[in-house]
Structures are given as C-alpha cells and as structure tokens.
Amino acid sequence: MKRITRIALLSAMVVFTATSRGNNAKLPLIPYPQKVEQLKAEKVSFKTLVILADEDHSTNLSGAIAQLNRFVPALQISTNAPQKGYITVSLLKETSIPKEGYKLNIEGNKASITYSDNGGCFYAFQTLMQLMEKKGKAYTLPQVAIEDSPNFMFRGFMHDVGRNFQTIEDLKRQLDIFALYKLNVFHWHLTDHPGWRIECKAYPILNDPTYQRKGRDQGTFYTYDQIRDLIAYAKERNILVIPEIDVPGHSAYFKTAFGFTMASPQGIEVLEKCFKEFFSEIPASDCPYIHLGSDEVHIDNPKEFMAKMEDLVYQSGRKAVVWNPGLKASPATINQIWKDAAFTSEDKQNDVNLSSPLFDSSIGYVNGYDPLILVNRIILNKACGKVKGDSLALGGILCCWPDVKVADKKNIFRHNPVWPATLAFAERYWHGGELPFVKNPNLLELSNIEMRNNLEDFEKRMDVHKTGILASEPFPWTANSTIQWNVSIPFKSKEEHTAKSTTKALASLPDSLRWVSYSGGTIDMEALKRAYKVEGKDSLVAYAYAYIYSDKSKTVDCWIGFETPARSNRQYAGIPQQGSWDANGGDVWINGSRLTPPVWSKPGQYRILRPTWAQPEEEMPYEDEEFYWSRKPTKVHLQKGKNVVLIKVPKSYQAQRWSFTFAPLNMDGLRFTTKEN
Questions:
Q1: What's the angle, vertex CA 663, arms to CA 658 and CA 668, rounded to 5?
Q2: Is 2 exposed, middle or buried (CB count within 10 Å of its CB: 0-12, 13-18, 19+)?
Q3: SS3 of 472, please?
Q4: Mind listing the pLDDT tens digit for each residue in 549-596?
Q5: What phi and psi values does residue 186 have, to the nearest 5 degrees?
Q6: pLDDT digits (tens, 9 = 90+) for 586-624
Q7: Domains and their CATH numbers in the chain
Q8: Which residues are CB-neighbours of 618 under 8 A, at least 6 positions away?
Q9: 75, 119, 69: which is closest to 93 by C-alpha?
Q10: What residues contact residue 119 under an 8 Å CB cut-off, 6+ apart?
Q11: How far, CA to CA in Å, does 504 sit from each of 163, 363, 512, 587?
C-alpha cells in the first residue's frame, strides 16, 4: 500500500475580503471555469486545509504550496490533522481529462481534485484559493462541482526589459500573479535599442555600460544563473519562459558596440556565437522556444538572414517565434501577430499568415490604451478570431512596451493597466467561446445588451480581486460599464455654440447636432469619428452629457481626463495650463457650474506634438499627474436625485489621442442614464 502523507495548511489571513455573494451570482473566479454546479447552498467552514497525497502526487504540490505561501503569508504546514475544523483535499489522476484541465469537487468537509497533468493539479489549487472566503477566524468554501480546462493552450504576458530593466525578484512576484490567473507563458523581451540584457561570455562588450543608452539601466543584465533560476521558478508554477533575442532590428546598442549591424556578415558571425553560447547554457528541455523578433526593420538580405537565425534555433532542438508583420519566416515558425484588429473584418490590410501557427497579440498593447477601454477590448475580443484553439491558433500573449524611460519601475504598473488587463486577458484566452458581435470594441453601444451584460458580469468578479487578493497591487481600473452617455457626432469647431451653464449649453447647441448613445467611463472620440465617417483631421469638437441620479447628497471621487498619452511615446499636448482641464480645450460642467480643474504641478509642460521614438524626449519619464488614474481623483459634489454632467471634447491636432473620461470610483447609489427621468 502506498504511503499517504498529510500536509496540513493552516490559513491565517483573508484571501478574499468578505463580499456579498448572492446565490444566483457567479462565483468570483477569474478565469471563470467552463462548468460550475452548486451542490448545496450551505458553505463549508474550516480552519485547516489538509492535502492527502501519495507518492504519485506529492511532486505536483510544490508550486501550489508556494502560491499559498505567497498569497496566504501566515500559512503554517503540519503533518498532523486537527481533531476538528478542517477540510481534506484528495488528489486523483485521470488520463481522460484534457491537458491543464481539472475537476474540483467540494462537498461537506471533503474536497477532491482530479487531473491528468501537473498543470491541471496546479490550476485546481488556484481555483480553490480564489474560492476561499474569510469568516471570522475560519474560512468558508462553497459546495460545488467544477469541471474546467483551457480553450487555448498558450496564454502569456510579455515584458520589455530591454528598454526598462526589471530585477529577477520583481519578475518572480509577477510570475506568482500570472500563475494565479492561469497564464502559462512568460515572454521575456531581453534585448532592445538601449541594451543586451543577457550575460555574454563570448563578447563582454555587449554587457559594457559604455555602449548602452545613457540613463537606461546601463550595465544591468541577467547572468545565466539568474536566467536558469527564473526558468525553474516559472516551471514550478506551470509557466513556460520564451526568451526573445530581437534580431536584426531594435539593436542600436549592437552597432554602437561593434560598429556594424546585425545583418552584416560580421554581425551574423557575432550572433551565431551569442546564440550558441545561450543554447549551451540554457538547455532546450527548459527553454524549448526562442523568439527572434525580426519586426520593424529593413535589410538587404532578409531571406538569408532569417534562414540562418531559424537554422540556429532549430538545430538546437527548439522552435522559433517571430513577429508578424516582420521579416518573413519559414512556415513552421510561430507568427506572433501584433497589428491591432488583425482578426476583425474591418482590417483588410494586414497579411495574417493563417497557414503557420500563431500567437495573438493583436488586441492592443497594455502601454498603448486607456485602462477602461483596454479591459473592455480584451473581454470583447474573440481570441485568434476563433471559439477554440487548434494546431494553428495556439493562443495569445499580452504585451507591455513602455518605450519611454521608467525611472521607478513600480510605475510600469501604476502608469499601465498591467493587472486589470492581465485578468481580462486570462478570462478571454482560457475561456474562449463565442461572443456577441461588436462593431468596434472601443465603442460600447447601449443597444448591445448581451455585450453589456458580459462586461458587467466580469466587472463584478474583477472588483472582488481588486479589493481582495490583489489589494496591495497597483490596479488602475474601476467598474464603468453601467455609465451611459449621449455623445454628439463631432463637428467643425467654427460651428461651435458655447454656453455658460449645463442647462443652457444643452439648449443652445445647434439643433443640427446628431446625438448617439454609448456606455463606458471612457469614450474614444477618434473611434466615434471613424465610425460616423466625420471628415477633418483637427479643429473638431463634440459634446457629451449624462444624467446622474444619486440616492443622496454626497461627494464622490471621480476620474476625469481627456487625452491619454501612450506610454510608448511622448507625443501628446502635454499637461494643461493652470485653470484648464485639457491642453486641447476640453471642459466639464456639473449642474450648471464649471468643475474646478486640478492644480497642476507642471502646467504647460511636455507639449510635444510629434513622435519621440529614439529622440531625447523619450528619456523623460512620465509623471503621475499626466494620467487621470495616477493623479488624485477629483471630488465631485452630487445633489440628491438628478444631476447633469456636460463635457466638451475638442480635437486640436491630427495625432491627438482623442477621448474623454468621467468615472466615479464608487458607483454605489448612483445611476447613469441618457434620459431625463
């Protein structure tokens, strides 16, 4: 008889804050399982979790226990089960369960996990941990039967450490969270214009700070020991690391160091030695994929160069990945699709190679979008354009490219919606499935009830995570799908009629204005302009208004903003002048009175109306007041009953990221509507 070991997990903190969970509401799980059945209405109360595992299962537990130690830091482990107040978890193997799939049954004081591989066992524990709820000194679990497996086999996140270096310790903390939400790929962009971040024994000059971009983490790189350590750490959490050595573009440091380019004969010789050194240090068993980059570059010998690089990868027993659009690769190489909207019918220009396996990164970069819009885009995205993955549609990778210098690396997460987007991405690429048709994911039509219900359901679940297990993490997002607006079709600013108060402004605007209704805390005016085929590249204006009904007189914190700059570029109209809301002329009125703008620390600064890639301005880090979500919220007083908010949204230059945001951070007791009733 096989030896039974009892691992007692004594919990001593809140995994999720106490939250009202109605019997008919979905469990607050992300990603949501494929099938959930409630067995009994009563919840199981316990103080100790006892895992029963024989020798066949015990090797699968190290990652799960590490996660419990991370997210339940007061955890104690005992080999002795207490007399009472515990729940047991037994582990069973079943080969018929899909890869990374599992069954989780909780009934009475007994739970069971059935799985076929390490990933399935690990993910069952992530679900179990998300289900725990603190009640006094004990914890509760719902009595449920869950059957779950992913619809897409690759679900990843990419960090660009070539431009902004991050420590191994920071990356490990992030891997824990990726694993909690069942992401299984970490795409590690290790080289870019500022520097080569991999130890290089053959050419130490690549690690010499002299040849790296000044002020961009000069001299920092990962030793091979650190790379092996991170790969092992990720593997314990069912995460595959895909290193990217970007060739032959994105390599200014290379020419600075050697005096020739990567695509030259000398450059190819250097790269061959570098790749072979990497392959000798990092075995294919631990690192079976290598990303070659290959985008945003023009060279004289693309076919020869790519054949050489791919051959190096395949000879080492690995698979190659490249960006698409980019230099053309062989059919066996995985294409990572990065152009926005690559799988929508509106995009006729992109040549997506559907005959090769692919990763989908087309939904939008974390650094490029307004946080409220990006979460909606991801949830409404049909992954790879398919209901379920297959041998070509492998899955997706969410990318973060903060090209602009980040002095404090915590600002990568404060200035970019890394965690909100990650949770939305985890939901979409695990669950897959058919979705309601959406004309433009940047514009939420009020008439699309199914779409709005999907968003509202996800928001309720994500709110639980934001205030619970991720409460200590930067989380620039707030629930906003129930916010409703009347928005005018943009018109030439010379036709504008301005008034002094909200009521008069609405009455005095031209009768010829056409009004349309949309929902969301941020409205993308550029998308609306395209949708209604409005002519004109600048000198446009639009208005938006909404009725806000409040249960009582109160002051609420609101996010209010206009142009949102991409964190990959410094091109925008800059911080407004003192006394202004928007450097382009935007304004806000509440109940007939102009809302007082913030007091700006650096009024009028950072106005740069041209792209800044590879320019000195790229070395000016963004500051908190440049984003509505990282500066202090605006205090807005609402009277009991009806309130009216009016927003003026001008477009003053062609490349303006034209939008507006008005989002209360707490919607309790508030109701937005487009109608006065």
A1: 165
A2: exposed
A3: coil
A4: 999 999 999 999 999 999 999 999 999 999 999 999 999 999 989 999
A5: -115, 110
A6: 999 999 899 999 999 999 999 999 999 999 999 999 999
A7: 5-148 (3.30.379.10), 154-455 (3.20.20.80), 482-673 (no CATH)
A8: 403, 404, 405, 569, 570, 612
A9: 119
A10: 99, 100, 184, 238
A11: 50, 41, 16, 15
Give, as one character, the DSSP assignment of residue 2: P
> Cα–Cα distance between 568 and 615 in angstroms, integer?
12
Q: Does residue 325 have a cis peptide bond before it, meaning omega lies within 30 degrees of 0?
A: yes
Tens digit of each residue's pLDDT (9 = 90 or more) over 520-548 = 999 999 999 999 999 999 999 999 999 99
CA dihedral sign of residues 446, 449, 455, 459: positive
Alpha-carbon torsion 11, 15, 19, 24, what sign? negative
Q: Which two tokens stand for residue 562?
A: 């206009």
- Transcribe 406-461 into DSSP letters: -SSTTHHHHSS-HHHHHHHHHHHHHH-------S-TTSEETT-HHHHHHHHHHHHH
Query: In this structure, are residues 402 and 165 in contact, taking their beta carbons and an 8 Å threshold?
Result: no
Q: Are residues 256 and 211 in contact, defined by beta-carbon separation less than 8 angstroms?
A: yes
Please identify which residue in the block is written with the tokens 């930067």: 474
Determine whether 76 is exposed, middle or buried from the number of CB atoms within 10 Å of its CB (0-12, 13-18, 19+). exposed
What is the length of the chain?
677
Structure tokens at 357: 């396996």
Tell me which H or E stretch contains 50: strand 48-53
Is residue 648 over pLDDT 50? yes
- Pairing status of strand 515-519 against strand 540-550: unpaired
What are 387's two structure tokens?
């209901």
pTM beyond cutoff 0.85: yes
Amino acid at 402: P
Give the pLDDT of residue 16. Answer: 31
Query: In angstroms, rounded to a whole number, what is the distance separating the alpha carbons of residues 346 and 442?
Result: 13
Omega before residue 31 within 30° of 0, cis: yes
Secondary structure of 479-519 in HEC code, one letter for each residue: CCCCCEEEEECCEEHHHCCCCCCHHHHHHHCCCCCCEEEEE
Write b or e for each residue in 589-612: b if 16 or more Cβ atoms lie within 10 A of its Cβ, otherwise e. bbbeeebebbebeebeebebeeeb
Token reading at 1: 């008889």
Question: Cα(436)–Cα(387) distance, rounded to whole angstroms?
Answer: 12
Q: Over range 478-496, report the average pLDDT.
A: 89
- Is residue 624 within 8 A of residue 544, CB to CB? The reply is no
Residue 439's pLDDT band (boundaries 50, 70, 90)? Answer: confident
Cis peptide before 248, with omega less than 30 degrees from 0?
Answer: yes
Q: Where are the beta strands (DSSP E) in 206-328?
A: 240-247, 289-293, 319-324
Q: Rounded distance, CA 547 to CA 642, Å?
A: 7
Express each pLDDT in 292-337 by its tens digit: 999 999 999 999 999 999 999 999 999 999 999 999 999 999 999 9
